[in-house]
Amino acid sequence: MARSLPDRKVQEWQQRLHRFEESRHTINEFCRQEGFSPQSFYLWRKRLAQLRVAKQPAAQPPHTFRPVRLLPGTGVGVQLPGVSVQLPGGTQLVVPMADPESLLLVIDILARLDADRVGGSRPC
């Protein structure tokens, strides 16, 4: 089991490394001036870099296409040229194909709302 680093030590070394970045000294000169070994410097620089990576939130997957099912177009009592879409969150959309730009806008908005509702990733 990995030991956690004491907060005091972590802060101390973060401040030290910050001072080093602000200085114009080499690592050896800085370590001699501060009173610790270059090996300690490299060890703590590596540890702090690993801590930063561990504390970062998990990378969000890139926007991906969400599965949709295209069903035959339907209307009230009549068959209309259109699209009926069932989104993964349960939202169903039936849109006539009279205006393709409006159709794309409606699908995009509903897909975003649907993704928010199920807590999933947003569509492209």
List the helices and strands and how they pair.
Elements lengths: L6 H16 L4 H8 L3 H18 L13 E3 L10 E5 L5 E5 L3 H19 L6
Antiparallel strand pairs: 1-2, 2-3
Name the descriptors.
mainly alpha; 124 residues; single chain
What would your notes on this structure say?
The chain has 124 residues and is mainly α. It has 4 helices and 3 strands. The chain has 2 domains: 7-55; 69-118, no CATH class. The chain has helices at 7-22, 27-34, 38-55, 100-118, and strands at 69-71, 82-86, 92-96. It starts with 6 loop residues before the first helix and ends in a 6-residue tail after the last helix.
Total of helices: 4
The geometry reads as: rod-shaped
The biggest beta sheet, please? 3 strands, antiparallel
Unreliable segments of 5+ consecutive residues:
none
Record field, number of beta strands:
3
Q: What is the terminal separation in angstroms?
A: 41 Å
**Average pLDDT number:** 74
Task: Give a short overview.
With 124 residues, the chain is mostly helical.
